[in-house]
Amino acid sequence: MKRALVLLNQAIRWQDNLLLAEQPGFDQLIAVLILDPAEYLNAEYGIKRASTLRLQSQLRLLLDWQQQWQQQELVLHLRIGDTSLCLQQLAQHYQTDSLIAAEPTAPEQYQQLQNCGLSLKLYDLNSLLQHQLRPDLATLPKSFSAFRRQREPKLLVHQPKFYSISSQFYGEPEQALDQSSKDFISQHHNPNAVLLNEAAALERLEQFIWQQRAVTHYKQSRDALDGRWNSSLWSFYLANGCLSACFAWQQVLDFEQQQLANESTYWIRFELLWREYFRWQMRQHGRAWFSKNAFRPPLDFSAPHADRRFELWCKGQTGLPFVDANMRMLVQTGWMSNRGRQNVASYLIFELQQDWRLGAAFFEQHLLDYDCASNWCNWAYIAGVGNSGARQFNQIKQALTHDPDGDFVRRWLPEKTAAGALVHWPEAKVIVQDFWRPYLQQLKHKA
After folding, report:
1. Which residues face 122 on adjacent strands?
2. Which of 330, 333, 326 is nearest to 424 (CA)?
3. Among candidates 129, 116, 107, which has minimal Cα distance to 84?
4. Cα–Cα distance between 77 and 171 in angstroms, integer?
5. Is pLDDT of 59 > 90?
6. CB of 288 within 8 A of CB of 299?
7. What SS3 class is residue 77?
8. CA distance to 130, 165, 435, per residue, from 16 (Å)
9. What is the pTM of this model?
10. Angle 245-258/198-205 helices, nearest 10 degrees?
11. Which of 404, 392, 446, 396 is nearest to 425 (CA)?
12. Is the peptide bond before 298 cis (omega within 30 degrees of 0)?
């Protein structure tokens, strides 16, 4: 009897999931899902790796996925513990030396798979460029612009496919959940946590593209600080493998062919291509992305040192209302707009003079759409390390552009009562930057 474990981490979906298909050379497949507490409860630079909100959301997602398998009278083994050890224990129980899994981008997760000592077969399920379209890491362009030019104007991506679930899946029902996992669940599970599963992903996709046609104004609205239809919000689902990037891409193409193609429909695919580029950059340089200067030599993995300014930034108490409102939104909801992320990152790095890795670690802690490559590569991009120049933002100008009446700031900083755009005026403790002054003058004229 030839068996293989099938690890479904980063593949929590029924659609376009090769891990669910028949696997040649095996008689039985053992479905496994693992939550490694180290990735949530441990600390990096003194910053806990996941907030309660993010841990509870992830745990509810995994339990929901296991329940979906049960409804189909299939066994999905859920384990909470060290990834390598859990795989070894299940492999020993089911007498197998083989593991099939989604290919990760995070170096830590790749190392965990290698450490389990099993024969690995990895499928890249969450990239646009799979199989024969896979880029050569040795010749990967050093900038996104060059990467895009290399792939355009006729950009081909892997076609999504739909597989029937294999009849090879097997499991002993009593092995679906062990006692230590049950104990962890009883301690941390919140049945009311937000559920960001595949059903929610497909509903969001249908609404955003086909019902609301929000894809047609995406380029103009994507910089909004909030609003239900201004941004796609697909990142929640892409991050956990609940949504196939190829399927999302194909849905946009279908809309362009059947309804309308414009600059905005192109731009949402442009953003998916950015996500793709960072995935391959993470694979190319690996753990070097966690160096102070990213992969630029010499590599420096020394721990960054935070001061009081970082603590105030985390709490949304810097005294700069535009930054503070975005930070409080992040901590309370687990989300922040792309425009907000760029501005708070720039402020931490350039005005508060803090190590960019502290900000990246804090985002890892709170973002419900946390993705290793997207998060760390984007922070390095703003900081100007790795393969880009620095991206410094003018927060006062940005506030006047994206929150001209101050409604966003007042929503998240209820203690701010100034009328209109005057709510953006920095508190006395804030060091006023010279490049802010023309825009502060505009605020004075509004008074």
Report:
1. 101
2. 326
3. 116
4. 8
5. yes
6. yes
7. strand
8. 13, 11, 49
9. 0.97
10. 20
11. 396
12. yes
d(CA 190, CA 346): 34
CA dist., res. 338 & res. 394, Å (int): 15
346-382 confidence digits (pLDDT tens): 999 999 999 999 999 999 999 999 999 999 999 999 9
Which structure tokens are listed for 263? 């600059």
Length of the chain: 447
Assess whether pLDDT exceeds 80 at residue 446: no
Instruction: Tell me if 444 sits within 8 A of 425, measured CB to CB.
Output: no
CB within 8 Å of 173: residues ≥ 6 apart: 75
How far from 240 is each of 186, 201, 203, 235, 252, CA to CA, in Å? 23, 11, 16, 9, 20
Q: Which amino acid is at 320?
A: L
Q: Which amino acid is at 411?
A: R
Q: Which residues contact 69 (CB under 8 A, 6 or more apart)?
A: 31, 75, 76
Residue 341 φ then ψ, to 5°: -60, -45
* Cβ-contact 45, 71 below 8 angstroms: no
Q: Rounded distance, CA 144 to CA 139, Å? A: 13
Q: Does residue 102 sit in helix, strand or coil?
A: strand
Structure tokens at 281: 């950059």
In contact, 233 and 186? CB cutoff 8 Å: no
